[in-house]
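Quick one: sequence plus magnesium ion SMILES, need structure tokens.
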Amino acid sequence: MDLKLVPPNFLVTTADKNKVVMVNKAYQAVAQEVMDNLESLKARSGSQFSQGRSPAPVTVQGRAKHWVLDVNKGGVDRIIVRRYVRGGLINRWLLGDLLWGVNRPIKELSVTESGRERQAPVPEILSLRLHRAWGPFWRADIIFKEIPETVDLYAVIMSLKKLTDQPRRFHEEKKKIIKAVAEAVRSLHQAGVWHQDMQLRNILIRKQADQVRAYTIDLDRSKFFEKLSFSQKVNNLVRLYRSIEKWGIGRGVIRISDRCRLLKEYFRDQEFTRQKRWVISNRCEFNLKLHKLWWSVSRMI
Ligand SMILES: Nc1ncnc2c1ncn2[C@@H]1O[C@H](COP(=O)(O)OP(=O)(O)O)[C@@H](O)[C@H]1O
Ligand SMILES: [Mg+2]
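Reply:
Sure thing.
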């Protein structure tokens, strides 16, 4: 097993042929305690970790299986536990949470930490546990510190819809959100991270008084580069735009002018020529047409 990718701020506390545990040195004691009790924590409420805001483990929506648990000690309030699952419907149906080797979770740890080191708005990882199921197949759990008081961008757009009868507030709110999202994606990219799944559910928004901040989460299969190319950046921006269209939630809320605003904010101190804008708009429209075709075909089968 290649543990070279384990970031220096993580300590490998168990490493035998069937089990590997690594914990964030900044939270070593509590992270180890969570790891040692993970199964019982997941299984039952009322444990020493679940006495806080939510008495029972809460599950959140996502591709994988998640648990949200209260910890309330050692600088950690709540944690999100994510069990890795296979991508793709057939693969997931056949293999569920069995991973081939351990590269995928270790890479997510490494990319997330590289991003954090360079001030990207990504979550903090508490620990990672890898368990051999049989032969080359492993199961993996990754544990994050919860970014408190956040909602995903999908839910934020849904709630914006309710403000359309108050035009002034609606526009002000929308502007702030677009600015925060552009800033988050930009910082992620400046830190050298290309997101593999840049979509509404992987952007979390935190509103505090008048301030809006966005975070980019879920760096599973994302990649780290010293510098992202223009094309990689555009790929992420186009993908984000497509996810708004895919769920159709942008109707009546998100306009072409909002896409322009996002791009302007994103490229604010870089050269953003008419040609670049043209390239991005074309890619957005072309990509969308292709996907619309695919969505209608997949609805028929
Ligand atoms: N660090 C975190 N802080 C707060 N909420 C989180 C955090 N990580 C995940 N979540 C919540 O869990 C959901 C799914 O998590 P994610 O890591 O995107 O897994 P999936 O692979 O299922 O998409 C997110 O949309 C978000 O609501
Ligand atoms: Mg996700």
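The two ends are 41 Å apart (CA to CA). Residues 45-57 have pLDDT under 50 and may be disordered.
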